[in-house]
Amino acid sequence: MSLKSGPCPSCSKNSNIPPGYIEDLIRDKINLGADLVEEKVYEKRLQICSSCDSCVNDMICMKCGCFVHIRALDKIARCPHPDGDKWMSVL
Ligand code: SF4
């Protein structure tokens, strides 16, 4: 799942996601010392999001409004899908 820039797929009116914005958020999270998942868990979570019908443009979860690249980093984060946590298999 690649990182994108451009109009926000969620609100799309006047919002723009500048190049590097999501990468900066990821760097901030790492630098803040957040408890992060291992890389293989992160990649698997993103694969699951990529095939989820609630994921817009491989970027935003429409169940919670988050950037999936950011949420998937967090060890204590759970997938908010109402049918059940789709990340459960990779905890
Ligand atoms: S519902 Fe879960 S699997 Fe789907 S996009 Fe959101 S976090 Fe990812």
Write a structural description:
With 91 residues, the protein is α+β, with helices and mostly antiparallel strands. The protein has one domain (6-78). It has three helices and four strands. A two-stranded antiparallel ribbon has the order 1-2. A two-stranded antiparallel sheet has the order 3-4. The protein starts with 5 loop residues before the first strand and ends in a 20-residue tail after the last helix.
Rg, Å, rounded: 13 Å
Q: How would you classify the quaternary structure?
A: single chain
Sequence of secondary-structure elements: EEHHEEH
The residue ranges in which pLDDT falls below 50 over 5 or more consecutive positions are none
Order of strands in the sheet with the most strands? Answer: 1-2
Number of domains as seen in the coordinates: 1
Query: What general form does the structure show?
Result: globular
The amount of beta strand, in percent, is 5-15%
Q: Which structural class do you get from the secondary structure elements? A: alpha+beta
Mean pLDDT: 88
Distance between the termini: 19 Å
What is the helix content?
25-40%
How many β-strands, per DSSP? Answer: 4
Largest sheet: 2 strands, antiparallel
